[in-house]
Amino acid sequence: MSKKKKKGNLLMKVIFSSSILTIAFFMVIIIACLMILDFFGANITDNYVENNMDYADMYKETVNKALKNGFGYVPLNRILYFYLENDKLSFYEIYYDNIDKDSNKMLPISDVCSLQKYKIYDVCKDLDSSDQIDVDQNKPFNPPIEFNKITVTSFFMEERVVFGKNDVHGGWDLACGNKTPVKARCKICGYEWEPIASSLLRGANHKGSKTIHKSIDWLSSIVYLLDMLYNVSEQRKIC
What we know:
This protein has two domains: 3-201, no CATH class; 210-239. The chain is mainly alpha-helical. The radius of gyration is 23 Å and the shape is globular. The protein contains eight helices and six strands, in the order H-H-H-H-H-H-E-E-E-E-E-E-H-H. The chain has helices at 3-17, 19-36, 56-68, 76-83, 91-97, 109-113, 197-201, 209-238, and strands spanning 151-154, 159-162, 165-168, 173-175, 184-185, 192-193. The termini are far apart. Helices cover 42% and strands 8% of the residues. Strand 5 (184-185) and strand 6 form a beta hairpin. The strands form three sheets. The chain has a two-stranded antiparallel sheet.
């Protein structure tokens, strides 16, 4: 056995002999998977709120409650958009009002500002200058993990102090057990499965993906050709 292999086996023994290290090991794997799986989807995770440390605890409490209740995702900057106008509103109340209950997507800002509760606010009177998203989200909210089994301990772009240094977190930290299953959803065919973390990191796909995706490509080609033929026939009618 090579020295490199011996060192690898020794490292695995050290990790799995400690319950704390085991949990930490699997948390790292789950976080990596969630980043790959495009955890929150859509285009709403890039809204950075400066000096958000003052609101971090309230937001984490809110997002944990909302996710456990089955709601989709609303970023901190949307909540503060209304909270800074009226701090008598709770974070959870604003979160709830900004979710489309049918699709579980975040509502466009104009839809929220049309609600009686919010239409009187100054921030709803000039939406053209608003930095809030005013379009339907691209993808539905597909939970990759059972949220009643996890706790969000750090959110995307959270400002925090780590080992005495200021830090802006570039991901999501989720605390959970070391055998918590993570779901994946194929962007091409919608197939859902529970992958092995290491296989995802290697770029592996779901079972039967090659056959299914070839069928989809074949059907897409037929639709494309039929569309071309239709356009040609329409052009001849015009001529």
